[in-house]
């Protein structure tokens, strides 16, 4: 089943609790944590994650675009995140970090920038609950979807299936009504959508519509 995770990066930061309530029916709330070092932007941190967790019943999906996630990621589980994603390019000891996140009770996810291939991390897959394939360069919302990431999504799905693992495959960046079906056909099943949700007149309806599109595309028979 397709999951839609509205990105709070596209929400009104002055009304985060209300913006969370506006996407009733969302599977997770996606929270982009940026430190102005790993990526050139500064966003939400631990206190906001903790406060948002108290304000909503929707689980929190924290994407850490930060340096030294080995040090900081476990704190986001303690703050209430149900899923914590760290970047392959930033983690010093990804297996140890994934195990620590899971031991604290959250799902562990590995994110890959567009230029980072999945293949070197094949042996790590059993330690994870999700892989995030970035479909834009991380750091800013509202970017255009990178079509050249579709083969990488397919390769990632093939690796997951080859090992018989129950991993989710998330895509983040430029996901909209015009791109979500291609992502689903390539094998993604978790979709981060920012502008496509919070830029809509009815964000909750946009979530439902995107999910229906993804599920329809995923059910199509593949050729070859």
UniProtKB/TrEMBL annotation:
A divalent metal cation binds at residues 30, 32, 63, 172. Pfam families: Ribul_P_3_epim. Keywords: Carbohydrate metabolism, Isomerase, Metal-binding. Binds 1 divalent metal cation per subunit. Substrate binds at residues 7, 63, 139-142, 172-174, 194-195. Its cofactor is Mn(2+); Fe(2+); a divalent metal cation; Co(2+). Its EC number is 5.1.3.1. Pathway: Carbohydrate degradation. The active site is at residues 32, 172. InterPro entries: Aldolase_TIM (IPR013785), Ribul_P_3_epim (IPR026019), Ribul_P_3_epim-like (IPR000056), RibuloseP-bd_barrel (IPR011060). The keyword Isomerase applies. It comes from the Bacteria. Belongs to the ribulose-phosphate 3-epimerase family. Catalyzes the reversible epimerization of D-ribulose 5-phosphate to D-xylulose 5-phosphate. This is Ribulose-phosphate 3-epimerase. It comes from Streptomyces johnsoniae. The lineage of its organism: Bacteria, Bacillati, Actinomycetota, Actinomycetes, Kitasatosporales. The gene is rpe.
């Amino acid at each position: 089943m397709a999951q839609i995770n509205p990105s709070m990066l596209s929400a009104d930061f002055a009304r985060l609790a209300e913006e969370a309530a506006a996407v009733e029916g969302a599977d997770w709330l996606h929270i982009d944590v940026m430190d102005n070092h790993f990526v050139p932007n500064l966003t939400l941190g631990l206190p906001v994650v903790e406060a948002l967790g108290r304000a909503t019943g929707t689980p929190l999906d924290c994407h850490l675009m930060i340096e030294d996630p080995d040090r900081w990621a476990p704190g986001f589980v303690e703050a209430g995140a149900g899923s914590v994603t760290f970047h392959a390019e930033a983690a010093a000891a990804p297996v140890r970090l994934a195990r620590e996140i899971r031991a604290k009770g959250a799902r562990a996810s590995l994110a890959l920038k567009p230029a980072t291939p999945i293949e070197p991390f094949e042996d790590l897959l059993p330690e994870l609950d999700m892989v995030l394939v970035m479909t834009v360069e991380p750091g800013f919302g509202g970017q255009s979807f990178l079509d050249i990431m579709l083969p990488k999504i397919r390769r990632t799905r093939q690796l997951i299936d080859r090992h018989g693992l129950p991993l989710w495959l998330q895509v983040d960046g430029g996901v909209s009504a015009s791109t979500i079906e291609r992502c689903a056909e390539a094998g993604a099943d978790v979709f981060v959508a920012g502008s496509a949700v919070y830029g809509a007149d009815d964000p909750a309806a946009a979530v439902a519509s995107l999910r229906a599109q993804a599920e329809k595309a995923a059910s199509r028979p593949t050729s070859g």
